[in-house]
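Progress note, sequence design subtask.
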């Protein structure tokens, strides 16, 4: 069965989400508190992998503004909280008709509802039964479920609505995918008190981390009760580490941050000096060992991404073992708090490993967890408030857009960032990106390249696309974000007094390390060179005079010569501020734009142009050699 459409209503902050369609991978995007998690949790209750979490709770989950009014109803119809539309697949139809007879499936569309009542409501046209149905208890599935007696092959006689529902639950309930839900609240803990866990299990108060730990024990062929026998601890630990090994190997395929990690387990008596409940009974500790350094840390003190991956794979393996491969996966904010590269690793795992086998719905507010090639699979989640003609605010609750449509900037921000990344990638295409700081850099590079080509000399190769970034920090950030391959990018690095030692700045250096870096100080003096030093002091001062139309007697070309070791730009800025205060602040873009727009004949006679040409030719030669 394939889930096609969903509508959530009367659940927490959701009055009525409106109906929205489901894709092979559906990404719910929205601000914190918009209701993304509530949608997943409502869907999960249809057929959860933990049976005791299936019921909707009026006290805890019905919208609080209307709860007391709802509870005062007597004899009324209980409210629905979830309405889902499913499509029967070919295998489902074949299985049903093998039992009910040929032609028993009149329509492949099935609607399943769940709400503040026991069981599920089914409606559809199967086996001669059709129309709406009253709720019936869900069909038990998985290990330990009681066997169901076989139904006769012939189509059953006409029945009441209740019989319809029972009939459809009986035949279609076992075809309904089991819903696997995972969030950060399920991540396994590093230390577990065995006695405290046993007490929670006996009271029926297991938490998400408890269930993941019990799933790990199940994978290792043991149980929490068996852990109480410390005499067998070494054997149990060995079995658990064998079970964990394939999980850590699979993580290594997709977790590029660190690949040399393995899991170790320890079982020891509680120490009186430790915090409760680890000061008594037995304590089970999970540690992550770095194979390169042979150092280990408690599981919870290690990378959140690794802990999430390991915990999810343990739970995923256990659910598959119990229910098979008929699953629908729900992930709540996967990769929360991870570095952008780690989120890309996780997104790659979602699409390469999970989505190829199961339909999947996940929530996020990170642009790095949105595939820009799959924007059509994104659904926006937002709180809608409208203004009435009287000027009052009318709260409509949380809505899900069936298409990527929203007028709220904060809701759309992750989508805009994801699309921005795609645009930058598309911008380069088959070309290479040359990242520079300012628009003035682009003008000078283009002008000198054109003049060199006119003279039959080497200009900048047309494969390069010059992209201004704004400043050195943005330049380094963009380079670090996009430069997955060193051959795809180069950085033209001009240094000024604002960042004279940028390559010793650890974070900026790390972002730039994968790119070809071309400090301008290699081709011009002084050590703190900017693009204006490539132009040269004589030519640049004359350009400023011409661009600003400075009178002959006050021209900077006569008065603004830089001192030894002083950048040209600094000398010009000081002289301009001193001699021409009425002109306002000096704008370095104006002389660059003037050069770019002016005729070639007059400008090619500027003083120092031959030396400038030589400097730019040397730079272009080095850049072109990277292609």
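Output:
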């Amino acid at each position: 069965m394939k889930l096609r459409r969903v509508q959530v209503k009367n659940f927490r902050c959701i009055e009525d989400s409106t109906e929205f369609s489901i894709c092979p991978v559906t990404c719910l995007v929205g601000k914190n508190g918009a209701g993304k998690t509530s949608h997943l949790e409502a869907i999960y209750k249809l057929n959860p992998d933990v049976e005791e979490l299936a019921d909707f709770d009026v006290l805890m989950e019905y919208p609080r503004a209307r709860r007391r009014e709802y509870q005062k109803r007597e004899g009324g119809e209980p409210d629905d909280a979830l309405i889902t539309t499913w499509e029967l697949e070919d295998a489902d139809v074949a299985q049903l008709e093998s039992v009910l007879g040929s032609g028993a499936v009149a329509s492949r569309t099935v609607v399943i509802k769940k709400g503040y009542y026991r069981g599920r409501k089914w409606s559809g046209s199967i086996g001669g039964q059709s129309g709406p149905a009253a709720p019936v208890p869900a069909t038990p599935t998985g290990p330990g479920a009681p066997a169901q007696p076989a139904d006769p092959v012939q189509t059953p006689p006409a029945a009441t609505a209740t019989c319809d529902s029972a009939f459809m639950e009986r035949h279609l309930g076992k075809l309904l995918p089991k819903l696997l839900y995972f969030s950060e609240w399920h991540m396994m803990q590093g230390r577990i008190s065995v006695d405290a866990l046993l007490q929670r299990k006996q009271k029926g108060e297991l938490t998400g981390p408890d269930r993941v730990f019990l799933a790990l024990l199940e994978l290792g062929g043991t149980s929490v009760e068996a852990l109480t026998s410390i005499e067998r601890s070494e054997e149990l630990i060995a079995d658990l580490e064998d079970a964990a090994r394939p999980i850590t190997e699979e993580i290594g395929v997709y977790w590029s941050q660190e690949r040399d990690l393995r899991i170790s387990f320890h079982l020891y008596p509680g120490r009186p000096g430790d915090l409760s409940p680890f000061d008594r009974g037995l304590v089970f500790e999970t540690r992550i060992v770095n194979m390169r350094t042979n150092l280990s840390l408690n599981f919870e003190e290690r990378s959140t991404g690794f802990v999430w991956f390991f915990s999810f794979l343990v739970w995923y393996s256990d659910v598959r073992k119990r229910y098979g491969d008929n699953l629908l996966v729900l992930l709540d904010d996967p990769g929360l708090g991870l570095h952008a590269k780690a989120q890309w690793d996780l997104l790659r795992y979602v699409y390469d490993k999970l989505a190829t086998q199961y339909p999947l719905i996940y929530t996020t507010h990170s642009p790095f967890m949105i595939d820009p090639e799959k924007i059509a699979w994104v659904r926006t989640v937002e709180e809608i408030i409208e203004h009435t003609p009287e000027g009052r605010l009318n709260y409509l609750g949380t809505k899900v857009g069936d298409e990527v449509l929203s007028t709220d900037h904060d809701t759309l921000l992750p989508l805009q960032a994801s699309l921005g990344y795609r645009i930058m990638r598309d911008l380069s295409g088959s070309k290479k990106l040359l990242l520079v700081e300012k628009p003035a850099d682009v003008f000078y590079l283009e002008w000198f390249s054109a003049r060199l080509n006119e003279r039959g000399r080497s200009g900048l190769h047309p494969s390069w696309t010059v992209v201004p970034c704004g400043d050195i920090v943005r330049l380094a950030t963009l380079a670090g974000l996009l430069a997955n391959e060193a051959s795809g990018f180069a950085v033209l690095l001009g240094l000024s007094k604002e960042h004279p030692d940028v390559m010793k700045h650890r974070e900026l250096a790390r972002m730039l390390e994968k790119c070809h870096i071309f400090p301008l100080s290699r081709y011009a003096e002084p050590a703190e060179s900017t693009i204006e030093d490539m132009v040269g002091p004589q030519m640049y001062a004359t350009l400023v005079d011409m661009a600003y139309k400075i009178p002959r007697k006050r021209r900077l070309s006569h008065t603004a010569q830089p001192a030894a070791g002083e950048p040209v730009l600094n000398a010009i800025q000081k002289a301009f501020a001193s001699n021409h205060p009425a002109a306002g602040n000096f704008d370095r873009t104006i002389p660059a734009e003037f050069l770019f727009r002016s005729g070639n004949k007059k400008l090619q006679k500027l003083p120092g142009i031959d030396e400038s040409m030589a400097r730019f030719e040397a730079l272009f030669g080095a850049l072109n050699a990277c292609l």
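Residues 146-163, 499-503 have pLDDT under 50 and may be disordered. Work on this subtask will continue into the next period as scheduled.
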